[in-house]
């Protein structure tokens, strides 16, 4: 598993998650070194959009988020997944699958993932993020059901 963050202004490096992601691991290996500096670089209006995965909502992470003064988007339980990062993962997967021959080891997979992550055009990422408003409009219009996204 890898973790990464995107915004219209920057993207974090990919982080290879070894084993199960826990709240403590998420806080110490992702939030502190990657997310908080990225949000600070974006500016005071930056908002963290994560999901309701248990590591993201642990008590330790919630406390850290408050202490670090991170603006976090509220994400209701059992909500449709409208997060643009999901489409970024799809694009990344398509790009890596175009490599021939296929990777032969984990190191090669991680190298190609980082290379392709860095190669996704900024315009593609901006389009994903700027589509959020329309994603939400369509989701509401479909009573939370399927959208074209």
TrEMBL record:
Taxonomy, superkingdom: Eukaryota
Pfam families tied to this protein: DDE_3
Record-annotated Tc1-like transposase DDE domain positions: 17-101
GO MF terms, alphabetically ordered: nucleic acid binding
Coiled-coil positions: none
Transmembrane segments: none
Name under which the protein is recorded: Tc1-like transposase DDE domain-containing protein
Organism: Littorina saxatilis
